[in-house]
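WARN retry 2 of 3 for item q-0093 after timeout on previous attempt; input resubmitted unchanged.
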Amino acid sequence: MNQDSDHEKIRQEFQALRDSLKTVQLATIDSDGNPQASYAPCVWIENDCYLYLSELARHTQNLIANPAISLLLIESEEKSKNLFSRRRIMLQGEVSTIGRDSNQFAIIMAEFKSRFGDFIDVIEPLQDFHLFQINPQSGRFIRGFAQAYDLVGPGLREFKHIDMQSR
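OK item q-0093 returned
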């Protein structure tokens, strides 16, 4: 296999893992500077991740006060061949809010409805919900043992293999 076909295979595996998951695990920072873990349903449009979150949730309060976020998308335990090397994607970045009056809001909420069904009709009008866009600044894709890749380049769309020499 040449480097281009390897790169394409890695990209396909990355995309398949990302697109197979309907939720993402979140790490946010509370007002005391402590990390908090949680999860939320998400949608991806191209390479952008979106979350629709209620102010009643701590993670939403945290993101309003501090836009720093870390995301973890991880292969299910049942599908994993080895629980010590589950395939996973980690992204770090910041969130920005999409206003309800924007065209983008309607497009993204239509994608939420397509993915999660009529329940979105119930929560979309609730004013305590906010639509967040994740703006990733760094990331990593773990395929297994000795198969870790930093996400680099414009839009974090390239994969740079991590080995002992590149650490």
